[in-house]
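Page 42, continued from yesterday. The earlier attempt failed because a stray header line got pasted into the input along with the sequence. Redoing it now with the clean sequence only.
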Amino acid sequence: MFIEILKVILFGIIEGITEWLPVSSTGHILLLDEFIKLNMSESFKSMFTVVIQLGAILAVVVIYWNKIWPFRKGKTHAVSISKRKMIMWLKIIVACIPAAIVGLKFDDLIEKYFYNYVVISLALIVFGVLFIIIENKNKSTNEKMVDSIDDISYKQAFIVGVFQLIAAIFPGTSRSGATILGGISIGLSRTIAAEFTFFLAIPTMFGASLLKLVKFGFSFTFNEAIVLLLGTVISFVVSVVTIKFLMNYIKNNDFKVFGYYRIILGLLVLIYFGLIR
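This time it went through. Structure tokens are written below.
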């Protein structure tokens, strides 16, 4: 059991790091599973690797609570609603629509046909190249970037949602990577693209986790419950550190380093699995 706990901790760490860095959490979790097998049923493992994302979501909620909670209590204890924050949530809902529609209808088919090393590798490489291209383009343009979530239009929010859909279909793309890349490509600053990505993750990942839980059922053994709780807690703690690191990093740096990392990892995965299969 001790070895299994160490494995679960490792999965939680990888989830917490790769969920927010634009390098693909799903891709890394699937690759990790090739080398470190969790001693659990395939149905529980499929649910576990998604549901531990709840820890990552909670990290966003804790860090950005003041920016995302629209209700506030005044001096007279009357509750008021922030119109600005409600509009932000409407934009987030608009961005959720593409992935929600496709995910509910084709989740099982996507997992069956696209969750393999070839798709993961190609997605890592393609979006790695796109990160480098778009960042180079940004350096050569003088266009004003959107530097406030309030200034994001509904059209821009929907476009970011389309990029999220691409990530939902092709593992290895990276949900955060795709939406950040989509945001930057339509004129959002790196900081705002990252923040909007974080906020968009709340309903998206909660919905995905709930869908997996419903499909699996809510009946767990004691060991399964401990494994799920531990993975979620580790994911939360590591996510808090990762989010703070990323937001500090992008103040003075671009995303090209992640592009190069994705390309190298994608090529290594293609070579490794191509040789052994």
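Notes: The radius of gyration is 19 Å.
Reminder to self: strip header lines before submitting.
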